[in-house]
Amino acid sequence: MSDDETVQPVSLPIDPENPPEFPGKLPRELSRELCDRLQAIAEEISPYLGPEHRAIKALNDASHELMITVPFRPRYAEYTPED
Amino acid sequence: MRRYLIGLSVATLAAVSVGIAEAGPARAVNDCDFEFATSHPDVYKPQITGRGLAGCDTPPDSHQVQLALEYEQGGRWVVASAKTDNTIPPPFRAGGHRYEVSAACYAGTWRMAVAIRGTIQGHTFQFEDHSGTVDIPASVCHPRF
Predict the structure, then answer these.
(1) Rounded to two decimals, what is the model's pTM?
(2) Is residue B142 a part of any domain in this protein?
(3) How many structural domains compose chain B?
(4) Does B124 touch chain A (CB under 8 A)?
(5) ipTM of the complex
(6) Is B83 among the domain residues?
(7) Which of residues 20-39 of B touch A (CB under 8 A)?
(8) How far apart are CA B101 and CA B49, in angstroms?
(9) Angle made by CA atoms A69, A74, A79, in degrees to the nearest 5
(10) Among residues A39, A83, B74, B102, which is most buried (max CB within 10 A)?
């Protein structure tokens, strides 16, 4: 899926007998917003738990998982694909 | 049967035509992307952290990322801390490669900056980007001076 295509969520309600195919991608803006919200949570708990706490690592890991669900948008390292 | 054969021939011709149309000269495309993990650095007192992710669809020959934390001083950006990583990043769909850099937190305006260079198919490439900024007041982190 190219970055130009709009990622849309499945329509609700979902029929359990005939579940739709999920896009498996997040729109870039939504992913960014969610990562920033996870960052805000991590920053809020950091003064209590310390920056090395595993809860902060888990939030950062979750943010990473959200980032890699965005449609790939290659921006550098131009090359010519070989057949 | 004859109608079937004619139909088959037309279909074959169409497929060959499409094949010829698509087999033009190979087009150059970009291979890699780098994204900051968040809009601005993380403020995990007493430190400040920058995080990012790179991914390449096809492994380049070399790929060097320098992720830095910068603070503003007198209208210029000064590097507080930088980390270099020469890992060839896998594609995003395989998780990409994560980068992280930290520095002691002082009051001021901060941002992340990335400088990437490498080679692919014998050609060098470069890429630079920076994140949004975060203003850290003296009530959160001590002043630098």
Answers:
(1) 0.83
(2) no
(3) 1
(4) no
(5) 0.86
(6) yes
(7) 26-35, 37-39
(8) 6
(9) 140
(10) A39
Contacts 24+ apart (CB under 8 A), B4-7: none
- Measured between alpha carbons, how far is B68 from B76 in angstroms, rounded to an integer? 15
CATH number, domain with residue B128: 2.60.40.10
Host domain of residue B112: 32-136
Does residue B9 sit within a domain? no
- Sequence-distant (≥ 6) Cβ neighbours of residue B39 within 8 angstroms: A32, A36, B131, B132
In a domain, B86, yes or no: yes
B45–A47 CB contact, under 8 Å:
yes
Chain A contact for B139 (CB, 8 A cutoff) = no
Per-residue pLDDT reduced to its tens digit, B35-68: 999 999 999 989 999 999 999 999 999 999 999 9
Give yes or no for B111 touching A (CB within 8 A).
Answer: no
Domain limits of chain A? Answer: 28-67
Here the tokens at position B115 are 């400088």
Kindly state whether B115 is in contact with chain A, defined as any CB-CB distance less than 8 angstroms: no
